[in-house]
Design brief:
This protein has 2 domains: 157 residues, Transposase IS200-like (Alpha-Beta Plaits, 2-Layer Sandwich), CATH 3.30.70.1290; 47 residues, no CATH class. By secondary structure, the chain is α+β, with helices and mostly antiparallel strands. It is built from 10 helices and 4 strands; from the N terminus they run αβαββαααααβααα. Strands 2-3-1-4 form a 4-stranded antiparallel sheet, sandwiched between helices. It is globular and about 65 Å long.
């Protein structure tokens, strides 16, 4: 029997999760499709770009990723306390990065209008919902997968499901599990024999780290280049 997604993700047990999503039809995220003869490498760029945009919105950091031909892996850390500390204005700002403005009570609040007790109660509920979504893995994945599906369907001039059911999630309960999973994700292209070296493993976190460290070394007298990847350091789980 399948388990509800909320029972598989328990932030009180661990903030670290391994997420996997796979294409449902004979469509590719990347590489050459032997049936159509088309190359879909550009779709990996869509995915990485969207993934990083979402991490600028959500309280969810990317620890590792690998974009394969018909599926992808992400290792994430959820920063619930960070989201709980955000001001009302910050919650609104981040939410509006993804969705069009137009919620009447939110607009009235932003315009400096004083809300009556009833309106304030409703407004507080809206903000609580938005805040909870900003540290919700399912909401993160919804915004990632639905966006890619729309882009791919538009390009393929078709409709219908693009992803295979729900995404899969695996809780990473200790440092050993976290580091082992990150290594597993980074080594995916080599294991699949689509790359022979880590530095040539396109669209992976390890390639991005190697590139960033190389640039830092070459420009050591300049300011250190910022990486968008979260660096996991062994420490007691909280």
């Amino acid at each position: 029997m399948t388990r509800a997604r909320k029972s598989l993700i328990d932030l009180s047990a661990t903030p670290y999760y391994h997420l996997i999503a796979r294409c449902v039809r004979r469509a590719f995220l990347c590489g050459n499709d032997k049936y159509s003869g088309k190359n879909f490498d550009h779709r990996r760029k869509w995915l990485v770009k969207r993934m990083k945009l979402l991490s600028d919105v959500f309280a969810i950091d990317i620890a590792a990723y690998a974009i394969m031909s018909n599926h992808y892996h992400i290792v994430v850390k959820v920063n619930k306390n960070k989201a709980l500390d955000w001001s009302v204005e910050e919650v609104i700002r981040r939410s509006y990065k993804l969705y069009k403005r137009g919620e009447p009570l939110v607009e009235r609040f932003l315009n400096g209008e004083k809300l009556n007790e009833a309106s304030l109660h409703i407004f507080s509920g809206i903000i609580a919902t938005w805040r909870a979504r900003l540290y919700d893995i399912s909401w993160y994945m919804k915004n990632l997968n639905e966006y890619i599906a729309r882009q791919a369907n538009k390009e393929d001039n078709c409709t219908g499901k693009y992803w295979e059911g729900r995404y899969k999630s695996q809780a990473l309960l200790d440092d050993k599990a976290i580091l082992s999973c990150m290594a597993y994700v980074d080594l995916n292209p080599i294991r699949a024999k689509v790359a022979t070296e880590l530095k040539n493993s396109d669209f992976t976190s390890i390639q991005e780290r190697i590139h960033n460290y190389k640039n830092t070394a070459e420009n050591s007298k300049q300011s250190i280049q910022k990486t968008e990847l979260f660096e996991h350091k062994s420490q007691p789980m909280q």
